[in-house]
Amino acid sequence: MEWLIVVVFLALLGLAGWLLKPANKCELLKPGQAAPEFELTDQYGNTQRLVDFRGKWLVLYFYPRDDTPGCTRQACAFRDNFNKLKTLEVEVVGVSVDTVSSHDRFANKFGLNFSLLADTTAETAARYCSLLNLGIVKFAKRNTFLIDPFGNIVKVYWSVQASQNAGEIVSDLKHLKQLAHVEA
Description:
Layout: H1 2-19, E1 39-42, E2 47-49, E3 57-62, H2 69-80, H3 82-87, E4 90-96, H4 100-110, E5 115-118, H5 123-127, E6 131-134, E7 137-140, E8 144-147, E9 153-157, H6 165-183
Parallel strand pairs: 3-4, 4-5
Antiparallel strand pairs: 1-2, 1-5, 3-8, 6-7, 8-9
């Protein structure tokens, strides 16, 4: 009987490994690399592309689902730090695999003052190594990318803490801008 339990346990582990495999093989993005292009629709129905942000700093953050506790904390922290981020001349954009209408409801409910992009095909999340594929259900992983005005990744925040991410970005941008000022 014990061997049957072991066999079933091992079979379940194998099934879990198959279900939790990455959506595609993705080489993790690193600072200095060009950020992958994207073309996605925001909560207002406008198409936004990476190239639209050239000449500006960009915080591109991926999150699992609209209106869930962690995602709400993260979005509201970006909302609450919006003036600091604007002072640092950075744009904030959130991305999940939710729909445009879901993003619209989420942004309106919490007064979000930045764009939320609908990656309904999950292709952008996959290109940014930020896709969790659970078979028929896909989620974006909670990762954030700081992208410079030339479209290059400056910093990657893997598996961020929802409530701390916006503060980390503000702190890191202040530091980066101080370094740039010293070098100039």
